[in-house]
Amino acid sequence: MLLQLRGPLFDNRKVVLLYPHQHNQLTLVSMRLITLFLIALTTLPLHADDRQKVEFPPMMRDHMLANMRDHLLALQEITAQLSAGDYDRAADIAESRLGMSSLESHGASHMARMMPDGMAATGTAMHRAASRFALTARDADVEGGLSKAFGALSDVMEQCVACHAAYKVH
Ligand code: HEC
């Protein structure tokens, strides 16, 4: 039989009752509980935060977060240059702001010493990937291949994602 469930939780959907004779208060209550349980099951992983908290002195943390905001800005500028077909400019931005050449301006060696090994390694992997992207983008300028450049840019972003998934500072 069909049963109309009311209330925002059930969105007034119709459900099929397998045992019509059980159409009573108890069934409704247990169905609500099962639904709540299923909702909890499906939403929990979204909210679970199992990132490792890394303690930095406040000034270092602020410095790192400022770097991060510049990382995002750099990505935006790189994609804008790629879309304009200016591969060399995209390569320059990547190398100077995210690549191996950026390490000194970011105070990277000082920061890396305060990081857990895995975090420092991910940071290094990102800088290397950005330098590789710069080379790939310059090649794309010669070969005219955007897809390789985007593949290399995706490798850079993979390291942003990996580090953000594993660590936090507050
Ligand atoms: C080695 C680790 C690591 C890498 C690599 C990394 N990040 Fe982050 N980023 C962090 C951490 C840790 C935070 C703070 C997250 C928190 O505490 O919730 C952060 C925060 C940020 C923030 C927020 C800044 C603020 O003001 O709160 C932005 C934006 C950001 N990252 C962008 C990027 C981009 C873009 C990349 C890649 C190009 C990147 N990050 C690569 C570790 C990293």
Protein model, in words:
The mean pLDDT is 84. The longest helix is centred in the last third of the chain and has 27 residues. This protein has 170 residues and is mainly α. It has 2 domains: 42 residues, no CATH class; 118 residues, Four Helix Bundle (Hemerythrin (Met), subunit A), CATH 1.20.120. The chain has 6 helices and 4 strands. It has a two-stranded antiparallel ribbon with strand order 1-2. The chain binds heme C. Heme C binds next to helix 2, helix 5, helix 6 and strand 4.
Outline: flat
List unreliable stretches of 5+ residues. Answer: none
Report the order of strands and helices.
Answer: EEHEHHHHHE
What structural class do the secondary elements suggest?
mainly alpha
Bound molecules: heme C
- Rounded to an integer, what's the Rg over CA atoms? 25 Å
pLDDT averaged over residues? 84
How many helix segments?
6
CATH architecture of the largest domain: Up-down Bundle
- The rounded distance between the terminal residues' Cα atoms is 52 Å
Q: Count the beta strands.
A: 4
Which fold name corresponds to the CATH topology of the largest domain?
Four Helix Bundle (Hemerythrin (Met), subunit A)
Helix content: 55-70%
What is the class of the largest domain in the CATH system?
Mainly Alpha
Strand portion: 5-15%
Count of domains: 2
Main sheet: strand order: 1-2
